[in-house]
Amino acid sequence: MENKSLDIRYACIHGFYWMLCCSMIGYASVFLLDKGFTNTTIGTVLAISNILAVFGQPAVASYMDKTSKLSLRMLISLILVVIIALSLVLCFLTGASMVMVVLTIVAFTLMLTLQPFINSLTFAFEKNGIHINFGLARGIGSVAYAVMSLILGNLVAAFSPELLPFFYVGLSLCALFFVYTFFLPGHKDEIVHQEKETEHDQLSMGQFIKKYKTFMLLLVATVLLFFDHSVINNFFIQVVNHINGNSADMGNAIFLAAVLELPTMALFTKFQQKIGCKNMMLISAVFFSVKHVLTYFAVNMFMIYVAQVMQMLAYAVFIPASVYYVSQLVEEHDMNKGQALVTGAMTLASVFASLAGGVLLDALGVSKVLMIGAIISVLGTICMFISVEDVDQHAKKES
């Protein structure tokens, strides 16, 4: 019964986090255009936020791996409180100003930085013999993102984009409530002192890279796979318009992909037990490339919808598989750093896609950009096959 309650609370954390992500990143252009910013400024804001998150995630993770003074739950709560404070200020700022740019970048960066630590929360419980269904929680997050996108689209159209910062505040408060109540039975914090009480030579980032060489190639594979994923997501309206679709078609395609993520993520643990984490990683890489190739060859919305269905075996498999893969590959005192690097690789791909995607679209057009992205994706799949280790065998040997 206690496990079920924890599963529900963890799913709520993911649900409200991904709704917050949707309201911030998904509607960033809508919000900032309404304030009078140019497309160039908006692209810069998103790129800087992602770049800062790329460096911020491993930096915070390194601190968390070394300290026993601050738990993950406390860290996440603190970041959410800062986001709430910044969002309250954004609620009452009007017009385009440098203050708004800075506050928006900081709020977006903090929100993006949270992701690997929310992912890591579950493993503190695993160490105490309590299984949390990460796949189900992450699937709920995807559905929550899709539903929030539909809700915000209608509300913003009916009222005003000025509502968005109020959603930042409300969704952050909801996430904070469930993070605050997410603790071990007996009201103990989830901080794990067993490992930290034992002296470890804490690794610098350079030492970490030397220690886990094949993991670094896996990060390269992740960047390559997520580049085209991010190009398609960031410029999806251009892709849809290219085949005579419209914004409604785009909304349907996004909703389809997000909803289909839930069953895969919810059942991930069962699939992993039968197939193994290594094979799940390889399956996700193959279907990323299948999705990207199908998108390149799409000549109508039906083919786009078929490509979006591949999401359930691509992104929906990769997210939980990568989290479990890292948890089995790296030593426990390197866990936060490992999780942050995977998230950082995905974020870095988004940065490249944001900066290069628009330029390439203007210079080459949609079709050639999708072809380039598909080729890069296939290279990513090849790198994944070279780099992924049989962590299931590692786990068996250790047990």
TrEMBL record:
- Bilayer-crossing residues are 12-33, 45-63, 75-95, 101-124, 136-159, 165-184, 215-238, 250-268, 280-299, 305-326, 338-357, 369-388
PROSITE patterns documented for this protein:
MFS (PS50850)
The record ties this protein, via InterPro entries, to: MFS_assoc_dom, MFS_dom, MFS_trans_sf
Main location group: membrane
Q: How does it sit in the membrane?
A: Multi-pass membrane protein
Q: Where in the cell is it found?
A: Cell inner membrane
What GO CC terms are in its UniProt record? plasma membrane
Its Gene Ontology molecular function terms?
Answer: lactose binding; lactose:proton symporter activity
Q: Which UniProt keywords apply?
A: Cell inner membrane, Cell membrane, Membrane, Transmembrane, Transmembrane helix, Transport
Recorded protein name is PPP family 3-phenylpropionic acid transporter
Species in which this protein is naturally found: Longibaculum muris
